[in-house]
Amino acid sequence: MANPTSPGRPGTGSHTDKGREGASSLSEQAKDAASSAAQKTSDAAWGATQKAKDVASSVGQSASDLASNVGQKAEDATSSVGGSMRSLAGTLRENMPHEGMLGSASSAVAETLDRGGRYLQEEGLQGVGEDLSNLIRRNPIPAVLIGIGVGFLIARSMRS
């Protein structure tokens, strides 16, 4: 017997064409489904990326606000310390002797406290930091030696 799907037999071509059309249709549907799935995945990834960026931006802004708040409180505390130093200088001037060796020593201490307090009030932490940076730039070797000495003292006190 001859093969029913052989090309020489009449009427067998239509079955082959229908099979090819069905396979082609299934192939198109699979491509459409894959394309749709890829688009949905791409959309979901984009949405997740946008949400991550929004969250990161929000966290960054919160951290910036917190740092600004802490910085402002530190500046306020520095100004307050400066004011207290100036007040102490005034108290020393009023209550200590004005003459003799003790008078000149108390006057020198009061003047130093007053200048230091004024400096803290006017310059704040930022000014102190800038002045310290300039001092270290002008004198790098003594600054390193002082840093080593302070580190040694801290390590020694921690060991005890």
What would you say this structure looks like, in words?
With 160 residues, the protein is mainly alpha-helical. The protein has a domain of 84 residues. 89% of the residues lie in helices and 0% in strands. The protein contains three helices and no strands. Helix 1 runs antiparallel to helix 2 and helix 2 crosses helix 3. The chain is rod-shaped and about 130 Å long. The model has no long low-confidence stretch (mean pLDDT 80).
> What is the β-strand count?
0
Portion of residues in helices? over 70%
Order of helices and strands: HHH
Gap from first CA to last CA:
106 Å
Low-confidence stretches: none
Tell me the Rg in angstroms. 41 Å
The count of helical stretches stands at: 3
Helical/strand content category: mainly alpha
Give the amount of beta strand, in percent. Answer: under 5%
Shape: rod-shaped
Mean pLDDT across all amino acids: 80
Largest sheet: none
Summary, kept brief:
This protein has 160 residues and is mostly helical. It has three helices and no strands. It has a domain at 41-124.
